[in-house]
Amino acid sequence: MTRSLRIAVPLLALLLPFQAAAQDGLLPQALQPLAGQQAERPAPPFGRHGPLTEREMAMARAAWSYFEAGFQPETGLVNAVGSYPSTTLWDTASYVSALVAAYELGIIDKRDFDRRATLLIATLRNLDLYRGEAPNKVYNTKTGQKVNYANEPGEVGFSVLDMGRMLVWLRILRERYPYLANGVDNVPLRWNFCNIVKDDGRLFGSVVSGDGDTRYVQEGRLGYEEYAAKGFALWGFDVAGALEPAPLAYTTIHDIDIPYDGRDPRVFHNQNYVLTESYLLDGLEMGWDMPAADPAGPGVASQGWRAEFAHRIFLVQQRRFESTGIITARSEHQVEGQPYFVYDAIFADGYAWNTLDPSDVYQPDRAAVSAKAALGMWALWDVPYTQLLFDTVADLSEADGGFFEGLYENGNGVIPLQTANNNGIILAALLYKVQGPILQFANPNTTVWDIAYSQTDIRANKCLPEPMLREVPCCTCGDLPPPVPTIAAADFILCRPVESEDGIAATDCTTGPQVTARPEPRDVLPRQCRTAAVQP
Asked: Residue 288 and residue 380: Cα distance in Å, rounded?
């Protein structure tokens, strides 16, 4: 009882003033429905819910210990991998994920949370940007300086996927903790988005070419592209081109149509890995919703196709286990020694269950039960198979170092590496069990992000959104044809499609009963009969 009350205190501290003000009639009328909705919000129906058990709390503390061990007090950053003093914006967002979860779960108190959060925000606010545009792909955690992949002073371009993940978590910080909003808003206000968000809504990262020039490249494939786009959309950017799943293709694995990116890697020079992680992050952090407050509540995934695809990605891994006996929870992960990192794909390069390194070399011995994938699926799907996944990885940790990356499928034991991304996602999964989707629109205040530079041309020069400008309806809008959804309602298999003003949402998602036939032994003659049969 004490633990469950402690878990609820940080969120209630945000909501109670609004609820009391609404009851006293002190809130503006437009805000009173919001306060009421927050007070009456039902428990999310996707996955597991309830207070953490003693074992689960011990797991949360073990995961948080990674961020104690890897914390750099000079910058507030945390090492991405073990004791190596380097990180990316993606891994730093995973640290923010861990920080929020550790506070909400009562592992750290508000003083420690505020100390870490304000120091980190100050470092992010003052990062030396790649050529004045956006955060470099890699930074030294001790100095906060931009570095190359060898952790030497230099720069290697910026990743729009990493930026998108950071924007999701910056928005979570601003919504949950309004007193941090000033600092949070000033982080992306320094970035220049003109080469990042294109007019058609696609997202572009950058690389350094051989002659030292900057080359801008479209970044992201199905799964990650839409997840990153949500981060940008949460801050008002029009990224419709990146939010759409097209172009789509499907491959059938264990009788399930698995979606993958339809762009030909031979033409676009970018592999189409089908991975679990982006769908897990979307579910844990946003409940597979569109990047806006969802009036239908967490029981309905307003971006319906994301929920549908996530359920397929989960179910195909369960069916692989049912058919082969191989416990399966796949995601990209670090490995010890060469090649240091692999994409443990459900489908890639034309093959199911294909484990590839960054050079697209087949690495079957590096396939693993990923700890973050196992616990993420355990949180989002409450079925017996995910309890098996939980039992497989629940104790793969050290009390003072966090969870290891996972357990090799082939019996070679634990991957002896601990990372910020793995432990941050594990903490997010445990927080999801307690509170549901982590992004909660609870801050109705005016924001610095929306108002800053509104009387100057700085917003235009940085290609920032213009929330203080509102387009009036056009005179012939009624004659425009209605948009056709990329994923039609008839294509939903595991989720019930729901028509809404914003498109097709999804609810009542289920993986259903086991339908995969278990392997049966085949009949053969006794050994002596087989020997006699071949004699002349």
From this structure: 11
Least reliable range by pLDDT among 6-20, 193-207, 427-441? 6-20
Contact 116, 102 (CB under 8 A): no
Write the secondary structure of 416-462 as one string of H (helix), E (strand) and C (coil). Answer: CCEEHHHHHHHHHHHHHHHHCCCCCCCCCCCCHHHHCCCCCCHHHHH
| Per-residue CA distances from 379 to 48, 375, 429 (Å) | 5, 6, 6
- 3-class SS letters over 41-82: CCCCCCCCCCCCCHHHHHHHHHHHHHHHHCECCCCCCECCEC
Task: Give the model's pLDDT for residue 263.
Answer: 87
State the DSSP code for 473: P
Cα 388 to the chain's mean position, in Å? 23
State how far the alpha carbon of 462 is from the alpha carbons of 186, 204, 256, 337, 457, in Å. Answer: 14, 15, 44, 42, 9
Mean pLDDT calculated for residue range 469-491? 77
Strands 351-352, 397-398: parallel, antiparallel or unpaired by DSSP?
A: unpaired
Q: Coil, helix or strand for 347?
A: strand
- Tell how strand 347-348 and strand 256-261 pair up: unpaired
The region of weakest confidence among 43-47, 124-128, 138-142, 277-281 is: 43-47
Helix axes 420-435, 89-104, angle to 10 degrees: 40
Q: What is the end-to-end Cα distance of the chain in Å, rounded?
A: 79
